[in-house]
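quick q for whoever's on today - can somebody do inverse folding on this one?? i tried earlier but teh output was garbage lol. tokens:
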């Protein structure tokens, strides 16, 4: 059985207790598929007040996170887990997509650095992290929510976490297409009926319908994905 370890560095480690204490993530932790360790960045500060930020050189609005505590946290984790891949959650990073999630799910250990304030000292990005990842073209108050998104996106791809491997294969973005529409009982709700093909009992016709609907939905909602396929 393969275990994926996450080390998450944050000044607000308590934010992760509820998201990681329920549902799929908690079950995967209980079954030994995930090992999630939270690190309070302030524990790595040498400042007597456990301070981890300061005003930026050159002036500017807001505070910048110091290089020293983050560097010390990364170094301490790498001493214990040398093979870990260190990721900075940043709006300036590579956009997270399903392909990247699959890539990261194959690694044994990931260290996630959650920034705050106006950002972190540039020396961390240049010399201490392996890559930056963004969850979208917008700015959040900190890296904690992106870290939660990244953990869930990766964890659900691990063998055994969702139970049925086919449920992962058929999801949106697997082939750069959105998932086909889904229906369940009742067949008729106040005149809103399930497409007859889905209750026909003909597997080939159903599969052809699903493929056609996935293409149709992608063309309507995310035509950029179809253009991406053309370029590949």
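ok took a stab at it. sequence:
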């Amino acid at each position: 059985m393969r275990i994926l370890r996450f080390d998450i560095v944050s000044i607000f480690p308590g934010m992760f207790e509820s998201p990681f204490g329920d549902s799929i993530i908690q079950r995967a932790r209980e079954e030994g598929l995930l090992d999630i360790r939270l690190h309070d960045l302030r524990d790595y500060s040498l400042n007597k007040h456990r301070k981890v930020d300061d005003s930026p050189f050159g002036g500017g609005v807001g505070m910048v996170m110091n290089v020293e505590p983050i560097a010390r946290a990364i170094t301490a984790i790498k001493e214990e887990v040398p093979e870990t891949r260190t990721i900075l959650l940043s709006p300036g990073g590579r956009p997270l997509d399903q392909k990247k999630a699959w890539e990261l799910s194959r690694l044994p250990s990931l260290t996630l650095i959650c920034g705050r304030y106006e950002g972190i000292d540039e020396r961390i990005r240049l010399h201490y992290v392996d890559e930056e990842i963004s969850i979208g073209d917008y700015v959040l108050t900190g890296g904690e929510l992106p870290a939660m998104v990244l953990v869930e996106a990766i964890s659900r791809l691990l063998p055994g976490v969702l139970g049925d491997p086919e449920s992962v294969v058929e999801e949106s973005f697997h082939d750069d297409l959105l998932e086909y529409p889904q229906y369940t009982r009742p067949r008729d709700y106040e005149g809103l009926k399930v497409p007859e093909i889905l209750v026909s009992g003909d597997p080939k016709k159903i599969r052809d319908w699903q493929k056609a609907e996935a293409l149709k939905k992608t063309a309507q909602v995310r035509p950029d994905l179809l253009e991406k396929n053309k370029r590949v």
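fwiw Strands lie at 4-10, 34-40, 53-54, 64-65, 85-95, 109-114, 131-134, 188-189, 192-193. also The chain has a mean pLDDT of 92. so keep that in mind when u check it
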